[in-house]
Amino acid sequence: MSHDDQLQKAVLAELKWEPSITAAHIGVTAENGTVTLSGHVQSYAQKHAAEMATGRVKGVRAVAEELEVRLPFEFKRDDADIAAAAVDRLAWDTGTPRDAIKVKVEKGWLTLTGEVHWHFQREAAEREVRNLMGVIGVSNAITIKPRVDTAGLSDDIQHALHRSWFFDTENVHVTAQEGRVKLTGTVNSWQERQTAASTAWAAPGATSVENDLIVA
């Protein structure tokens, strides 16, 4: 059995193992470590969970996610109902600044806009609306407020990566211009790649992160 065949079987097993996913209609192909997910799921939350579960599998270098969300009839909601539920959910979330985020819904696809101070607030907003009934996709267009002082940003991120047992920092390089961060080099897994990006986003002053890390 080839490495790609083994990887395909491992991903299929992980998708079936993950209790939040109904994997019956998900197809998996693998080529040189790149895994493509196709088929359909019953919610946007399942679509996101499938991508995360795939990334956990050893040997996955990249994930191409082509899943379609097909809502069961009982899960469908009007755009106005989805928008109202999203606004209400965000208002109760202590992780997002009150009234900082705007919501638009078109045919079940939810778009978030606005400006926050931290990336974790941007992520929290998306996480809150991801599981709402009737949502078939989320576009997160929330921006991070720029800071005046971004000197030493690349060094701060490099030091944070060095503190983690995940990384050999000789293989991960960080550059920053104003608040724009770029990661280059190699890591050992797709999960390490995601963790490196999360570490960079946590730096005060980071307004964008371009993740060009390669899974070796």
Q: How would you portray this structure in words?
A:
With 216 residues, the chain is an alpha/beta fold. The chain folds into three domains: 3-70, Histidine-containing Protein, Chain: A (2-Layer Sandwich), CATH 3.30.1340; 74-144, Histidine-containing Protein, Chain: A (2-Layer Sandwich); 153-215, Histidine-containing Protein, Chain: A (2-Layer Sandwich). The protein is built from six helices and twelve strands. The protein has helices at residues 3-17, 44-55, 79-92, 119-130, 153-163, 190-201, and strands spanning 26-31, 34-41, 62-65, 68-69, 101-106, 109-116, 137-140, 143-144, 172-177, 180-187, 208-211, 214-215. The strands form three sheets. Strands 1, 2, 3 and 4 form a four-stranded mixed sheet that branches. Strands 5, 6, 7 and 8 form a four-stranded mixed sheet that branches.
Helix content class: 25-40%
User: What percent of residues are in strands?
Assistant: 25-35%
In total, the number of domains comes to 3
Low-confidence stretches: none
Task: Provide a count of the helices.
Answer: 6
CATH topology of the largest domain: Histidine-containing Protein, Chain: A
Terminal-residue CA separation: 21 Å
Overall pLDDT confidence? 93
The CATH class name of the largest domain reads Alpha Beta
Biggest beta sheet summary? 4 strands, mixed
The radius of gyration is 19 Å
What's the helix-strand series? Answer: HEEHEEHEEHEEHEEHEE
